[in-house]
């Protein structure tokens, strides 16, 4: 088959693969540019890039500087397409988005919150706005709000199902029955919901599906159902270009299916992670001592939080996985080797063609 391209607003990627934004520091310029160089869309995560020592002002300033630095690095390393992923619950998310646009990037991915103000924050029509959604209801809410307030629609949407890694847009009760909220069920509902807005504005709203996409055969199935592309995160962690510690990658390689668990995040959302020594110790201790001057997440309840999620993710990034959190997708246990991004994407495209 001919590999379809992925068009999002003003940009066209050669292949329908988006590398998911993974914080803290999991997906930076090296990984994102490698994916972009293969024709996909690479994504830098804006989460947790700042200096965690010092005042809240220092943390906020250094996080912005570090993000702009990663964007500049990526633009030097590739002529391909780069996106930046933002969490709506970040206290300085508006400043981060403005700095990214000023640095010249044209794809903004927005999750962990409703982007009701995003078009006002980024009025430039050449900057493509891509919210992450988990249901047709959320898609309708965003499109209706943007249509009424800003007379525009999204340039694409990422439909994230219950098998994704990290923070999830589903309740713990829903995650006990992921088959009821599978992409196969959610995608047709979303496609039906967006059609009136596509008709009104005379252009397609590409739906990119995410969560549990592992092989080229999975990609082919989603494309045949009407998706315009897929987003993958877990598969890219164990690549040479991903900058996490070797210990972080080894945790993926060692993980068994029963090691993949749902946790309650200090952010107030459920999340999917590897059940490592950190989580086991946490069950015994109940809560770690937290002293937080940063308040980096608006949704974080520091007084009741069992641990600092930013610090826990950062420790794993640097290699102290026994005292850190390791986010992953449901299929992380299937990863069995470290490869280059080029090798991974060529494998996926070959499987896609065969399917």
Written account of the structure:
By secondary structure, the protein is of the alpha/beta class. It has two domains: 6-243 and 336-354, TIM Barrel, CATH 3.20.20; 246-323, no CATH class. It is 39% helix and 16% strand. It contains 13 helices and 13 strands. The chain has helices at 29-37, 56-77, 93-102, 118-121, 136-150, 172-175, 183-201, 216-224, 234-237, 246-254, 277-285, 309-318, 341-354, and strands at 6-8, 11-13, 17-19, 41-45, 81-87, 107-111, 128-133, 157-160, 166-167, 207-210, 229-232, 260-264, 270-274. Strands 3-11-10-8-7-6-5-4 form an eight-stranded parallel sheet. Strands 9-13-12 form a three-stranded antiparallel sheet, with no helix packed on it. It has a two-stranded antiparallel ribbon with strand order 1-2. A hairpin with a 5-residue loop joins strand 12 and strand 13. Helix 8 packs across helix 13. The radius of gyration is 19 Å and the shape is globular.
């Amino acid at each position: 088959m001919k590999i379809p391209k992925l068009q999002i607003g003003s940009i066209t990627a050669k292949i329908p693969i988006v590398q998911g934004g993974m914080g803290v520091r999991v997906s930076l310029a090296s990984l994102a540019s490698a994916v972009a160089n293969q024709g996909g869309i690479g994504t830098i995560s804006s989460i947790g890039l700042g200096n965690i020592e010092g005042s809240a002002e220092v943390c906020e300033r250094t996080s912005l500087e570090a993000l702009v630095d990663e964007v500049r690095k990526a633009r030097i390393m590739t002529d391909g397409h780069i996106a930046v992923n933002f969490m709506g619950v970040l206290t300085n998310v508006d400043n981060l988005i403005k700095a990214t646009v000023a640095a010249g990037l044209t794809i903004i991915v927005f999750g962990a919150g409703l982007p009701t103000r995003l078009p006002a924050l980024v009025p430039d029509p050449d900057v493509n706005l891509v919210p992450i959604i988990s249901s047709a209801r959320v898609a309708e809410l965003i499109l209706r709000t943007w249509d009424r307030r800003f007379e525009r629609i999204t340039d694409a949407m990422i439909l994230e199902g219950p098998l994704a890694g990290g923070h999830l847009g589903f309740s713990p009760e829903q995650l006990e029955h992921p088959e009821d909220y599978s992409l196969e069920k959610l995608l047709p509902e979303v496609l039906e919901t967006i059609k009136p807005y596509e008709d009104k504005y005379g252009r397609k709203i590409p739906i990119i599906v995410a969560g549990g996409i592992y092989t080229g055969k999975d990609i082919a199935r989603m494309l045949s159902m009407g998706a315009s592309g897929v987003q993958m995160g877990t598969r890219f962690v164990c690549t040479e270009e991903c900058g996490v510690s070797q210990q972080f990658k080894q945790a993926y390689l060692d993980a068994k299916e029963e090691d993949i668990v749902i946790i309650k995040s200090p952010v107030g959302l459920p999340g999917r992670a590897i059940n490592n020594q950190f989580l086991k110790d946490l069950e015994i201790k109940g809560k770690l001592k937290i002293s937080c001057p940063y308040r980096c997440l608006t949704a974080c309840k520091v007084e009741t939080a069992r641990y600092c999620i930013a610090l826990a993710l950062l420790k794993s990034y640097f290699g102290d996985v026994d005292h850190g959190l390791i986010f992953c997708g449901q299929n992380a246990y299937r990863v069995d080797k470290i490869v280059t991004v080029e090798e991974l994407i060529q494998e996926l495209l070959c499987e896609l063609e065969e399917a």
